[in-house]
Amino acid sequence: MRVLGIDYGAVRVGIAITDELGITAQGLKTITYNGNDKILLRELDKILEEYNIETIVVGMPFYLDGNKSARTDITEKFIHKLKCKYNTINIVKQDERLTTVESHKTMNDLQINKKKKKELVDTISAVYILETYINKKQNT
Question: Which pLDDT belongs to residue 118?
Answer without folding.
Answer: 66
